[in-house]
Specification:
This protein has about 700 residues and is α/β, with parallel strands linked by helices. The protein is about 25% helix and about 30% strand. It contains 17 helices and 35 strands. β6, α5 and β7 form a beta-alpha-beta unit. The radius of gyration is 28 Å and the shape is globular. The N and C termini lie far apart (about 70 Å). The C terminus is likely disordered.
């Protein structure tokens, strides 16, 4: 069969795009599948479709495309009666051109099945779809989540389709109650979630993880209130919140108000999420209105038990309370219940690991083969109800054309034709001890010997590093790999770009980032000794999607683990790392950048484990402030040893500047004005104190002293 799935914009990160891309990839194992994206707003899809899926775009709105400057008048809708969903107020409103092309596509398609994936597209399919192919709608939210006007329009559109699919049984019951006389087949098929490629979680971290768009419906305020209670009992645990959205700034302020900036990290959006779930010991879903349950199934598939607020939809249908996760009441003191459930799993490692194993087993029912079978059964039932019509693609021998296209693609791959024109994809996994294992699918490359090359991005005086690729098997099948061993290699501080070269003298090209697994960087010895040096290697994807490394190489380092901003002083705690950092007496120094003036100099006690605790009185900084914007470098000076800059280089974050954010405080200066003092991280992850005159706001020092 030929199956077409309609997406509004396949190039934006959303749960709908992720779910549809996975479903398309699963169906492509047995059918000819295409994704039709009404608009294209980026060069690459955030969720890559499988090799058997063809992606088509109706209107390309990338900056350099011919339609990027569509006249605003063409964004007015030409009176088409379709459900008015949230797309119309999003970053890409509908255009006359897009709607005309979508209508033409639905009239001229040779597909046997067309699936619309949001209310706007459901309405279009109902109005312009033809009866000689199956017209199916999907609900990726819930009926109750839609506004009243949208529900009315959507009901009218659903009545003109052959089938409508919800993701949960609870939502199916709601639709059946609302449409008791509709001739449309209403059914429920859960979300498709393939097995993770990343290594599963060991459960040994002290990380609670939440994922989803940062909007009010996700109840992140409830989660922050709950985690404040958790931190009071378990200060060594952290919460990572993944996702982007309009609530980010407000949530950052709330985190500061609760004093959680050392314990709660806003990580931004990440794709794929499997390597991030692998870092978690517990997953949390603070809201009970989870529509698809994708987040829950993903976490379970990576061996992470889930704590979720109970609701009528996905959480209750996926999680078995006490077996593979915990459900907390959605009424009453919800934050307290959520905190209690998190503390239960934090305090009981045996129960947590038992639930993790059960969660992994539970996730198997959402695998592609099971979901594909349910969709194929739906297609067969709909054809039977419509009189058993033979799929059009089979009647026109397009199936044979599909097989021919597959054979041609395989032949091109075997011959290596055109493969050098596009960048290869390379996966990178951090091993225990910090070594890096690169893997390359060699079937994507032309025959011959290949090697990886690491090029320093900014320092031309440093030599590149060559890593020959080796086969996993003697038969030559499967991916090739290259190992960068931490015990025998050193990389200078900075960013390194990963290239692929054919032969020892061949031209090298940058590679795309594939799966990047960095969970082992959270092991206690992530800043490890190597030939007397301490070094950290963090693989990451650049904004353009290329694979790169962020490296630090230091004989000694003062790693800051906690930054406490008080009304009168800044308190820093941490530990010394690296062989050269031991057996010294230290003093702390705050020095004005670029000037030999020392603002504050005091003895710093370091215990036998290398732990330090520093208090910096703001009065000392204010007394030496030069009067304009200034940056103060913070160091530990050893008597007869090295100077150690304070920073945060351990862990798995290649750039902490927008993640580890600390509050600013205002303090009276010596001239009767006010001074803003703000601890921040530099590009090199050194901790500095930035100061500048400030007089527009009341003094926080006075406010906090009055409490």
């Amino acid at each position: 069969m030929k199956i077409t799935l309609l997406l509004y914009d396949a190039y934006r990160i959303s749960a709908t795009v992720r779910a549809v891309t996975r479903l398309a990839t699963a169906l492509a194992a047995r059918h000819e599948v295409e994704i039709v994206s009404c608009y294209r707003t980026a060069d690459r899809m955030p969720f890559a479709a499988g090799d058997g899926v063809r992606v088509r775009t109706l209107v390309d709105l990338r900056p350099n495309s011919r339609y990027c400057s569509v006249d605003r008048a063409d964004l007015r809708r030409p009176g088409i009666v379709c459900p008015q969903d949230e797309t119309h107020t999003g970053p890409t409103p509908p255009s006359r051109l897009g709607e005309a092309r979508l209508a033409a596509r639905l009239r001229d398609t040779d597909a046997d099945v067309v699936i619309a994936t949001r209310p706007y597209l459901v309405g279009f399919l109902a109005q312009y779809g033809l009866s000689d192919y199956l017209r199916i709608g999907q609900e990726h939210q819930t009926r109750d989540a839609h506004a009243t006007a949208l529900r009315s329009d959507l009901d009218a559109a659903i009545a003109r389709l052959d089938a409508y699919v919800t993701l949960t049984q609870g939502d199916l019951r709601t639709y059946r109650a609302a449409l008791p006389t509709a001739g449309t087949r209403l059914t429920s098929i859960p979300v498709c979630c393939p097995a993770p490629d990343a290594e599963p979680s060991t459960g040994d971290s002290r990380i609670v993880l939440a994922a989803g768009r940062l909007n009010p419906a996700k109840d992140h305020d409830r989660l922050l209130d709950a985690f404040a209670k958790v931190v009071a009992l378990h200060p060594d645990w952290t919460l990572r919140i993944y996702g982007s959205g309009r609530e980010r700034t407000r949530l950052r302020s709330r985190i500061e108000e609760l004093g959680l900036y050392n314990h709660v990290l806003l990580m931004g959006a990440r794709t794929p999420m499997d390597p991030e779930w692998a870092k978690a010991a517990i997953a949390v879903v603070p809201h009970g209105t989870e529509s698809s349950g994708t987040t829950i199934v993903e976490a379970m598939g990576c061996g992470v038990p889930v704590v979720s607020t109970d609701g009528d939809h996905a959480p209750r249908e996926i999680i078995t309370h006490g077996e593979d996760g915990l459900l907390t009441p959605g009424h009453g003191p919800v934050a307290d219940a959520l905190a209690d459930a998190l503390c239960r799993l934090i305090e009981n490692g045996t129960e947590r690991r038992r639930m993790a194993a059960a969660a992994t087993a539970n996730a198997e029912r959402f695998r592609p083969e099971h979901i594909t079978a349910q969709y194929e059964a739906l297609f067969a039932d709909c054809r039977h109800e419509l009189g058993g019509a033979v799929p059009r693609s089979r009647g026109r021998a397009s199936s044979g054309g599909h097989r021919m296209r597959r054979r041609t693609r395989l032949l091109v791959e075997r011959l290596g034709a055109g493969r050098s024109r596009s960048a290869a994809t390379v996966n990178c996994r951090v091993l225990g001890g910090g070594s890096l294992l690169f893997s390359v699918p060699m079937e994507r490359l032309a025959p011959g010997s290949w090697e990886l090359m690491l090029h320093p991005r900014h320092d031309g005086s440093v030599d590149s590093v060559r890593l020959p690729l080796e086969r996993h098997t003697h038969q030559g099948d499967g991916p090739s790999w290259a190992l960068l061993e931490g015990r025998h290699s050193e990389l200078a501080d900075g960013d390194w770009d990963v290239h692929l070269a054919r032969g020892s003298g061949g031209r090298s090209r940058r590679v795309r980032a594939g799966l990047i697994e960095t969970a082992h960087l959270l092991d206690p010895g992530s800043l490890r000794p190597a030939q007397g040096e301490g070094q950290t290697w963090i693989p990451y994807a650049t904004e353009e999607g290329a694979l790169a490394l962020r490296t630090w190489l230091r004989s000694a380092h003062a790693e800051v683990t906690s930054v406490e901003v008080g009304p009168e002083a800044l308190r820093l705690t941490g530990s010394l790392q690296g062989r050269a950092a031991r057996a010294h007496h230290y003093r702390f120094q705050a020095r004005l950048q670029g000037v030999a003036v020392t603002a504050y100099n005091a003895h710093c006690h370091v215990n036998l484990r290398g732990d330090f605790d520093i208090t910096i009185p703001f009065g000392e900084i204010a007394e030496h402030h030069p009067g304009n914007d200034a940056t103060w470098e913070l160091s530990l000076i050893a008597y007869g040893g090295p100077e150690l800059r304070l920073g945060m280089v351990s862990g798995d974050l290649p750039d902490r500047r927008e993640i580890c954010v600390f509050p600013a405080v205002r303090y009276p200066d010596s001239c009767g004005g006010a001074l803003s003092l703000h601890p921040q991280l530099t590009h090199d992850h050194d901790l500095v104190l930035r100061t500048k005159p400030s007089s527009s706001l009341p003094l926080r020092r006075t406010q906090e002293s009055d409490r």
